[in-house]
Amino acid sequence: MARASRILLLLTCLMAVLAVHAQDDIPYYGPGPDWVPPLQAYVVATDLPNAVNYLPAPPDTASAAFISDMIKWQWGKSIRQNANGTRTTRGSQAWNDSQYGYPRWYNVLATIFRVTLNKFPGMGGFVYNVGEAGSVSTQYAKLYHKRRRPIPQLNDTTWGRYDEYDDMLTSYSFPSSHTAFGWAVALAIAEMVPELADTTLARAYSYGENRTIVGAHWNSDVENAILTASAAVAHLHTIDAFKQGFNNAQQGYYNYYGKEPPTDTPLPNGRRIQGYSMVDTASSYYYADVAQYWEAKSLRDTDRGLEAQVDASDSERALLQMYSNILGKPLVISTNPGIVHLVRAAREAIIESAQQMRDAAPFKKRPYVQLGEPTLLPGEEAYYADKSSYPSTKAMLGWGLSLLLAEVAPEHNEALLKRGYDYGQSRVIAGYNYPSDVMAGRIQACAVIAHLHSKPEFKDMIDDAIMEYNDDLRLVTQVNDINAHKPAPDRWYTTTGVLLTSPPETPGIYIHNGHKVVVRIGDR
After folding, report:
1. Does the fold of domain 273-469 match that of domain 26-265?
2. pTM of the model
3. What average pLDDT does the chain have?
4. Which of 3, 222, 361, 484 could pair with 208 in a Cys bridge, judged by C-beta atoms 3.0 to 4.6 Å apart?
């Protein structure tokens, strides 16, 4: 009898373990207690664009945008459990996804890759560092806005497996660091293993959305964390340690499977990544969209309304002019062909992706058509009347191109990101898109830019644009000695006088034999 009881107990424990991880297709393989994070992080918070400077403040409880947050919170609570009190499949996933960061994503990626990360040399440290970069991208906004989480705000209790009530009381909500960790990792993996891009990005999207299901975050915390994470990944592309880590991890992955990275993967499937996120009139979110439409309409007679009129054009010329004002140089084919070609290629891919996403969704009337309202741009009403509102192509262009140019000109990243964000928001002010259309466009733009980075020819275009942007440093000029004695022949120094042990392997400005020179890729 005792033996039977023990067997029953073991079976019960086994069933419980399987239930906990029912959302994963393979057993849980955590990193283990002996795993030690890399000592050298790719970035710290001060290295990254400050989200306070390019994102708006979180919705106030009296604002129209907060309606969407409340509706999403109510939806999250409604799908946690079945009528009998057991967790739903999605509820189980959300319950487990309350685990932050690398331990959770170790298993998420093991599920996607079908093997654990330790099969690929360098992959574990790379994933950890990229995820933490995404996470710290939220730090300044959290401390600046100090937004209360839903649990204390609504006097609720914790539901996520790993969420502690005291932490919900003392930590801040906007943006979500869980979401930013997962989205940053997913963007990097989408670039590294493009055949798994849709699967990985869709899983990262649900990882963030699950923070609303467990009640730890508002929906706007999650959406804006996706944006801060994408900004962090754009900045990571300017860092040699990230590039080296990426190359090592990618080589390890494809060596393990005995193949080469594909070069013919299609554009990311936005409907798969974001699920059926289109808000129609049957959705309770529609009323949040309408409320925000009226709020935005009030800005038309202000300077912000004038900017929205300027933002009406998404032609190549108009976009280049918009970014010329930030970069302080005319972006025209005669003087900056590399940057122009980069923007042109990205613009074409973004527009194509927007059309694919639009074709895969039901037709959605634009606000001015649905509500019988005038727009800020009456001359365009007839043209757009039979064109679906979801997603916003202009929002995709603004955010996607800003991410790309933030990589080319990182010293202007905050101004670029803010302009890209505002460019999308102008469509709400003008009456041509709902806020949900705009956010869906921004999120898809992140996926498209990651996809383009997976193309070797596009990476070459980025390198050319970066070198061209720094063209004022191209000239080989005589400089003063950087030490009291003349540098010995065949020695390389940085411009601050640091002697290199070997010729430089990354592009930049160096001192060689008493001359200032530019090293490009492949130069020696």
Report:
1. yes
2. 0.85
3. 87
4. 222
